[in-house]
Amino acid sequence: MATNTLSEVAELHVPDLKWKGFKVYKISGGAGPQHAHGRRDFYKIVLVTSVMTVSYGDQTAEINQTCLVLINPRISHSVIHHTERKGYACVFTEAFMAGRERTELLQNSPLFRFGKTPIIPLNSEQELFITGIYQKMLSVYQTDYEHQAELLKTCIELIMHEALRIQPSSNEPKHKNAATRITHRFMELQERQFPIESIGSPLKLRTAQDFAENLAVHVNYLNRSVKEVTGKPTSVHITERIVAEAKALLQHTDWSIAEIAYSLGFEYPTYFNNYFKRVTGLVPKSFR
């Protein structure tokens, strides 16, 4: 039993990915050698049949059938393979999907948002449809077709829309009123701060007041709107996200606890230790 990233094959060809912003490949075989896992600068969409456990941020999920797995570059992930696996995968950068409508689909899709499950079980009809799209991508990827990139982008869009059709989100803001609009802006602004990639660029927005000032609204209005739309106070959303990032940094980096504390905007490591323990019941060292 070994731990691997879903991009293990693609990572052998990272220069190719960075040059074109896209790669598609077929998955086959058993578990490979162990790989360190972490966050990357590209998205992944994987069609896989296997029995495995997926670690995604601070969550874990079991796969025991054919599934579509959608990985956000902001969130660390790893996979423990228990059986042989087969399927397809594509990796792509946000720049590859450039264009107002496509970028909006990518950024706003609940399939790529923090806190949403990245795993979508498929029935035989859905598997057949998405397999056909991957086969088309492989075929196009190996040609010199003049509009190759556009056709590949369209294939990615088809997979994403099919995933949304299979598993629609009933909790996404519909922007029907001012409260949902400001809540959506708050959630997007919060998520844009992550992942923390450098100790030298600490988290800047850490309180409801910080977000309210950035969004040019009164803090009471922000708090009231967020609570109305989500059922949770602004402070709870902020705390949950900071702690989730802290867990990812503790698990997937070799930064010291002091460095993690500073990167998350805490003036002293002791403040971070107390904050983390209050929320999780554990001190950071124990969690790591």
UniProtKB/TrEMBL annotation:
Keyword Transcription regulation: yes
Keywords linked to the UniProt accession: DNA-binding, Transcription, Transcription regulation
GO MF term (any one): DNA-binding transcription factor activity
Gene3D superfamilies the UniProt entry points to: Homeodomain-like (1.10.10.60)
Domain HTH araC/xylS-type span(s) in chain numbering: 184-288
Superkingdom as given in the UniProt entry: Bacteria
Pfam families associated with the record: HTH_18
Protein's name according to its UniProt entry: AraC-like DNA-binding protein
